[in-house]
Design a protein that fits this description.
Chain A is mostly helical. Chain A is built from six helices and no strands. The chains are: A mainly alpha (122), B mainly alpha (136).
C-alpha cells in the first residue's frame, strides 16, 4: 500500500504546483486509504508532508517571479492564531465528525475550483 | 469586486500601504490558518481565490504567494499537531518526498499550459474521494 501513498504524493505535488491547491486535500484521504491512519493522524501528518512541497514550490515559483514576498510573510504571520484555533478545534472533535467535516470541505474545494476554472477559462 | 477593492484601497493609503489591504491580508491569513489547522491542508484553496478576488492578484502570483505563505502555516500547524502526538513523521516522508518531485513538475507545467480539463478532473477526484471517505 506504500506504492499508493507514494503515487498520491506525486500526484498531489503536481496538482499543488499546477493549481496552487491540492497538496493536503489529497494527502489526507491518501493517508487514510493507503496507510490506514485515523482522521486526526492523517491531518497532522499531511501538514508535515506539505512543508517540503510548499518549500520546493515556493522556490520554483519565486524563480518565475510569482511570489510577492512581503504579502506572503504577512499572510504567514497573520495566519498563526487561526491555525492554532483550527488545530484545537480538530482535536476537540471525534474522528468521525472530523472526517465528515473534511469530506464536506473537499466538496466545497472541488466546487470552488470548478467554478473558478469555468469563470476564468474563457 | 476586485476592482472596487483596488479603488477603495487606493483612497485609504496609509504610509504607502492601504490599511484596507492589510486588513484583507489579515482576514485571508486567518481563514487560511483556520482551515489548515482544522483540516490538515495548506490553505491554498482558501488563499488563492481570495487573493484573486480581493487583491486583484493574477492566478500565477496568487498560487506562488499562497505556496510561500503555506510554508509558515504548515510548519506552525504541524508543530501544534505534534504537541497532540498526532504527527507520523515516516508517513509524512512517504507522501511528502514524492510530492516534492511532483510540485517541481507541476510548477513547470503551470508556466506552459492552460488546460481547463485538469482542474475540472481534479474536482471530480475530490468529490469521489469525499464520498469514499464517508461511505467506506
Amino acid at each position: 500500500m506504500s506504492g499508493g501513498a507514494i503515487a498520491v504524493g506525486l500526484a498531489g505535488g503536481v496538482v499543488a504546483g499546477l493549481l496552487g491547491v491540492g497538496g493536503g486535500v489529497l494527502f489526507v484521504p491518501a493517508l487514510v486509504f493507503f496507510v490506514g491512519l485515523g482522521q486526526h493522524q492523517a491531518e497532522a501528518t499531511s501538514l508535515l508532508a506539505i512543508v517540503p512541497v510548499a518549500l520546493a514550490g515556493t522556490y520554483r515559483q519565486d524563480r518565475y517571479g510569482n511570489v510577492r514576498r512581503r504579502d506572503a510573510l504577512l499572510l504567514g504571520a497573520l495566519s498563526l492564531a487561526g491555525a492554532a484555533t483550527g488545530v484545537a478545534l480538530a482535536n476537540a472533535l471525534s474522528g468521525a465528525a472530523l472526517r465528515d467535516c473534511f469530506a464536506a470541505f473537499m466538496v466545497l474545494v472541488a466546487a470552488q475550483l470548478a467554478r473558478r476554472t469555468l469563470a476564468h477559462g474563457g | 469586486m476586485a476592482g472596487r477593492g483596488v479603488a477603495r484601497g487606493g483612497a485609504q493609503r496609509l504610509g504607502g500601504r492601504p490599511a484596507s489591504r492589510t486588513l484583507k491580508i489579515a482576514a485571508i491569513g486567518s481563514a487560511a490558518g483556520f482551515f489548515s489547522g482544522l483540516f490538515g491542508v495548506g490553505g491554498g484553496s482558501v488563499m488563492v481565490p481570495l487573493l484573486v478576488l480581493w487583491l486583484a492578484y493574477d492566478e500565477r502570483a496568487a498560487t506562488g504567494t499562497s505556496l510561500a505563505a503555506i510554508v509558515f502555516i504548515a510548519v506552525f500547524a504541524a508543530s501544534t499537531q505534534a504537541l497532540y502526538g498526532n504527527v507520523r513523521v515516516l508517513d509524512a516522508l512517504l507522501v511528502g518526498l514524492p510530492a516534492v518531485a511532483g510540485v517541481v513538475f507541476g510548477t513547470w507545467l503551470q508556466q506552459r499550459i492552460h488546460a481547463r480539463a485538469i482542474p475540472l478532473l481534479f474536482s471530480l477526484v475530490l468529490v469521489a474521494s469525499a464520498v469514499e471517505l464517508v461511505l467506506r
